[in-house]
Amino acid sequence: MATWSAPGKVILFGEHSVVYGKPAIAMAIKPRVQVTVRHSRYYQKPNSPYISECFRLTDVKGSVYVRSQLPSASGLGSSAAVTVATLFAINDEFELGYTREEVGDLAFEVEKATQGGRASATDTYVSTFGGLVFIRGSEKRRLLPPQNLSIVIGNSLISHNTAEMVEKVAELRRTSPVIANGIMDAIGGVTMEAMHNLENPKELGVLMNRNHALLDALGVGHPVLSQLVLAARNAGAYGAKLSGAGGGGCIWALCSKGSRNRVAGAIEDCDARPITTSIDTEGARREKDE
Ligand code: PMV
C-alpha cells in the first residue's frame, strides 16, 4: 500500500492563453488531495476518468482510495492533484522507478487525454513540484516566491467544466481568430509584466484586473465571478481576477495583511466561500499509510 498527496493551485496569470503557448504563472496552495493505492488482483474501474487513465497508462491493476480537501470542478486544480497523487502512489506501490520529473510528465499526458487533447502542463507541474511556477510551452521553471503574497480565494460554488471552457476558447479562435489571438497576445503581455512585478503588490493588482477583463473578453467570465472580483476590490484588495478555466469556479484576490479579513467577509456577503490560504512549497509528498 502507498499513500501520496498533492496540492491544489491557483493560476495567478495566463490561463487559457497558456494552452496556445503563451506564458502563465501558477502557485500551489495548501489544501491537498491524498490518494492510497494498493496492489490488488480485483481491479475495479475507478469512477474518476483521471484515475482510470493513470492505471491505463502505467498498465498496472490496483485499488484506490481518495480523500480531498479541495472542492472539485472549482478551478483549484483538484483533478490535477488527484492525477499527480495517484501516479506517485502507483509509482511507489508498483516500484516503477519514475523520477519526480517523469511522474509530472505522465500526469500531463493523463490530463491532456482526459481533456480531449487540449491542455497545458500548468496544473500538473505546479501540483508535482509545489511553489510558484512559470510555464510557457515546454519551458517550466520554479520561481522564488515573493515574501508577502497574501491571498484570498473566493469559491463561487458554481461548478465548471474545464474541457468545455477550453473548447469555448477554441471555438472563438476558429470563428474570430483575429480577436481571439489579439486577446491572448494581450494576456501574454500582462503575464510577462507580472513576472517583473512579483514583489510589487500594487502593480500586480492592476495587472490582475487587466487579466480578468481580458478573460471576460475571451468569453470565460461569469456574472457571479464579476460580482466577486468587484466585491474583493471594493473591500480593499490590490486586485482580483478569476482563476482557472472560468465560467464558474474561483476568483483570487491579492490583499494586504490588513485587508484580508475584510475581503474574505465581502466574498461571504456574496454567498460565496472565502478560502484564506498560502503557498505550498512541497508539491507531491509521501504520506504515512493509515
Ligand atoms: O479549471 P482549471 O483550474 O483546471 O484551469 C484550467 C486552466 C486552463 O488554462 C484553462 C487549461 C489548461 O490546461 O491550462
UniProtKB/TrEMBL annotation:
InterPro entries: GHMP_kinase_C_dom, GHMP_kinase_C_sf, GHMP_kinase_N_dom, GHMP_knse_ATP-bd_CS, HddA/FKP, Mev_gal_kin, Mevalonate_kinase_arc, Ribosomal_Su5_D2-typ_SF. It comes from Methanocorpusculum labreanum (strain ATCC 43576 / DSM 4855 / Z). Its EC number is 2.7.1.36. Homodimer. It comes from the Archaea. Keywords: ATP-binding, Cytoplasm, Isoprene biosynthesis, Kinase, Lipid biosynthesis, Lipid metabolism, Magnesium, Nucleotide-binding, Transferase. One of its GO terms (biological process) is isopentenyl diphosphate biosynthetic process, mevalonate pathway. The gene is mvk. Belongs to the GHMP kinase family. Mevalonate kinase subfamily. Signal peptide: none annotated. It is an enzyme of class 2 (transferase). Pathway: Isoprenoid biosynthesis; isopentenyl diphosphate biosynthesis via mevalonate pathway; isopentenyl diphosphate from (R)-mevalonate: step 1/3. GO terms for cellular component: cytosol. Its main location: cytoplasm. The active site is at D123. This is Mevalonate kinase. It catalyses: (R)-mevalonate + ATP = (R)-5-phosphomevalonate + ADP + H(+).
